[in-house]
Amino acid sequence: MTLDVMPDVTRDTPRKAAPLLEADGLVRIYETRKGLFGQPVPVRAVNGVSLKVAQGETLGIVGESGSGKSTLGRMLLGVDPSQEGVVRFAGAPLPAAGTPAWRALRAHMQMVHQDPLAALDKRLTIADQIREPLDIHARGNRAERRARVAELMQAVGLRPDQAGRYPHELSGGQRQRVVIARALACGPSLLVCDEPVSALDVSIQAQVVNLLADMQAANGLAMVFISHDLKVVRNLADRVAVMYLGEIVEEGPVEAVFAAPQHPYTQALVSSVPAPGKRLDGRMILKGEPPNPAARPAGCAFHPRCPHAVASCRAEAPALVPTAAGRRAACHLVGGADRLAA
Ligand code: SF4
Q1: Measuring from atom 6 of ligand 1, which residue has the nearest CA?
Q2: Is 143 found in the same domain as 51?
Q3: Model-level pTM?
Q4: Which of 26, 85, 146, 332 has the greatest CB tally within 10 Å of its CB?
């Protein structure tokens, strides 16, 4: 296909020389109201997150609900602005959301949301939904756009006769295929997927995950895959970042982290993943309530639930530091020379 809808913004960026996506010290604080008089309480949804994603790489982001992963996903695209820190895409800081420069860049950075029905316009046919980004970014002429829509529908496993249907006439899995086709329309370099299969039937989830993996491989996409499902992340991601109360507490190559998690929170998450032949009585049960971003504990935010907490954990927050090749963890009890030097 000759339609120029697949620009490569990183064509001049040597692979590995600079990450495609880089976040440095991101902070997002919301205000919530609390108490009888509704006093404003600041909530640090994302607290100093730094990460990198290389072209063609998948970074999984895992954590319980309330860990800040969805907020972080929106911040990586500039949809949710960062109050501190910077996001760089292909080496340049993201323009402010809503500006013409940011809108132009959105052709290269797309999001796949959890709820496909909410992401689609119920008044538009499937073909119109998929063509919309091509119209917005003025890609190709009418015939080329029509051909591109047909190509995308075929690529994501939709039938040609579904082009004239409306979202409510499709199943949940088919709707998510439409969302994926739409996200791919302009040939993005980066896909941020926020729980893209959690609203789908279990029987459909694997199909959509496989589709995302196929599309990523076929198009050389960088992908940020946000999920609470560790099994899916293990199968799909190259690296994984574990979030707790707005911070990354562990990060590394997915196989290394799952084989030997270093942070006690990661150990608890990994121990609860079912596997053939795995004894569930060896699970590490987390005590206490799930994290509440409005009531952040002092010191290490995980200390009220941590089975290994010592006195210093209540007083001092551990920094996220290198612990092994390509790995980082934020725990006073993990790490070697780097932590000692930190
Ligand atoms: Fe547990 Fe302390 Fe490590 Fe935090 S710093 S994870 S409380 S051992």
Answers
A1: 331
A2: no
A3: 0.89
A4: 26
